[in-house]
């Protein structure tokens, strides 16, 4: 994928995550998007970080002592971690939902 496509798709995805998670208005979650880094801070001190890594052309996510590197699959319009097969939005929904003990849909 060329750099411009990566920047457009990663920006769109991070903004979607920010909007969707921010709309939860959950008192145990603070959502902050700064540039290409989305930080999810939980009231127990845990942090999840999701960022666009332009040099690698991936979205990286660190959460609960795990890390994922998601590649954009253009024909499916999804971000998939090659190592695990996990899809970005589903992974965020699952992890944040578990942390908040609530259903999360993005």
In short:
By secondary structure, the chain is of the alpha+beta class.
Distance, first to last CA = 24 Å
- Which of globular, elongated, flat, extended, rod-shaped describes the shape? globular
Could you say which structural class the secondary elements and strand pairing correspond to? alpha+beta
Mind telling me the CATH superfamily name? Frataxin/CyaY
State the low-pLDDT regions, or none.
none
The number of helical segments is 2
- What helical percentage do the residues reach? 25-40%
Question: Notable features of this structure?
Answer:
106 residues; alpha+beta; globular; Metal Transport, Frataxin, Chain A; single chain; 2 helices; 6-stranded antiparallel β-sheet
SSE topology:
Elements: H1 3-22, E1 29-34, E2 37-42, E3 47-53, E4 58-63, E5 66-73, E6 78-81, H2 88-100
Antiparallel strand pairs: 1-2, 2-3, 3-4, 4-5, 5-6
What does this structure look like?
- The chain has a 6-stranded antiparallel sheet with strand order 1-2-3-4-5-6, with helices on one face.
- A hairpin with a 2-residue loop joins strand 1 and strand 2.
- The model has no long low-confidence stretch (mean pLDDT 97).
- The protein is an alpha+beta fold and 106 residues long.
- It is 31% helix and 35% strand.
- The longest helix has 20 residues.
């Amino acid at each position: 994928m060329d750099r411009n496509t990566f920047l457009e798709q990663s920006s769109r995805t991070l903004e979607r995550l920010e909007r969707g998670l921010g709309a939860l208005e959950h008192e145990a979650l603070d959502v902050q998007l700064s540039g290409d880094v989305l930080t999810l801070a939980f009231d127990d001190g845990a942090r999840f970080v999701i960022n666009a890594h332009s040099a690698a052309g991936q979205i990286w996510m660190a959460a609960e002592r795990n890390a994922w590197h998601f590649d954009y699959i253009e024909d499916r319009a999804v971000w998939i971690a090659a190592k695990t097969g996990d899809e970005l939005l589903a992974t965020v929904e699952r992890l944040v939902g578990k942390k908040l003990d609530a259903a999360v849909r993005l």
